[in-house]
Specification:
It is built from eleven helices and seven strands. Helix 6 crosses helix 7. It is an alpha/beta fold.
């Protein structure tokens, strides 16, 4: 049996499917949580995982692409292992640190989880939790640093309903999209959206309507991809990440991402905290991964 979960409705199970396919798992019985099922919810309280436990029979194996698709907290892992042992189910993780371990190994006489397995589970879970906490702190500090420089994060503002009619009138009178964007302090895309139905009859100048950028394929280091999955992304950024193809590289992986240069640059900007900021030291491996990605993005034609 296969268990899959995504954190938001803008994510897909593409990477999980790839990991399972590379492992040769073709089990037709799959339980997939509804998009957005909270990772903070105890696994035993998730609807689809509950259905899986009801469906499973002694001797069955539960296949998961990576441990974080099922659990995040230390105690959650131990609770799930106890239930799987009770129901005589095996657990197979196919990617990440847990993939090399038999998590269901028990003492032959006492039936308790082997102390070495328990120690490794607790250690790896605690390390993963620490990494996520550090990433959240770095992200927060990076946003504060950006705000101090006058850069405001999040989505760019759209044209207000109250001013939309004036924008359309000004556009029909010959005002350029660039000028309207400056006047209203919004992006050119927001202006184009406000006058979208007028564009076929009133073509913008070449400067205002640049030719679409062709997609470019880059190999994003796995540590950068893992960090970006924990951050808030625009739909285009999230889609490019979710559609990426994971390629194994020794003990890690790279994510082959095809996107227009603008999206690659946005990805690079999002992972700025990996370089460290405001006295928070960077993790050397993460900083190195970001700079490898930065070298690729910097080589793109402006």
């Amino acid at each position: 049996m296969v268990y899959k979960r995504v954190s938001t409705d803008q994510q897909s199970t593409a990477r999980q499917d790839l990991v399972l396919a590379e492992a040769g798992i073709e089990d037709p019985v799959a339980f997939e949580e509804e998009a957005g099922t909270s990772s903070r919810l105890h696994p035993l309280q998730r609807p689809k995982f509950g259905e899986l436990l009801t469906y499973a029979r002694p001797g069955d194996t539960v296949h998961i692409s990576e441990m974080l698709r099922l659990v995040r907290g230390n105690q959650h892992i131990l609770d799930v292992l106890d239930v799987l042992h009770r129901d005589r189910l095996a657990l197979r993780i196919h990617d990440g640190a847990f993939s090399a371990m038999d998590l269901t190994a028990r003492h032959p006489r006492t039936g308790e989880l082997l102390s070495t397995v328990k120690f490794m589970v607790q250690t790896l879970a605690a390390a993963g939790e620490l990494q996520r906490d550090l990433q959240r702190e770095l992200t927060y500090d990076g946003l504060r640093a950006a705000e101090a420089k006058g850069n405001k994060g999040g989505r760019r503002p759209a044209v207000a309903v109250a001013t939309a009619a004036g924008v359309r009138t000004a556009y029909l009178e010959g005002r350029s999209i660039a000028a309207l964007a400056r006047d209203h302090r919004v992006s050119r895309g927001a202006i184009r959206t406000a006058v979208a139905d007028l564009l076929p009859e009133h073509t913008a100048t070449e400067e205002d309507a640049p030719a679409p950028e062709p997609p470019v394929t880059l190999d994003m280091p796995g540590k950068v991809a893992d960090y970006l999955r924990t951050t808030e992304l625009e739909p285009a950024e999230r889609a490019a990440l979710d559609q990426g193809v994971a390629l194994q590289r020794g003990q890690g992986y790279t994510l082959r991402v095809s996107a227009v240069p603008t999206v690659h640059r946005q990805h690079l900007a999002r992972c700025q905290p990996l370089d460290g900021c405001q006295g928070v030291p960077a993790v050397p491996a993460q900083r190195k991964a970001r700079r490898e990605y930065e070298n690729q993005v910097s080589a793109l034609t402006p």
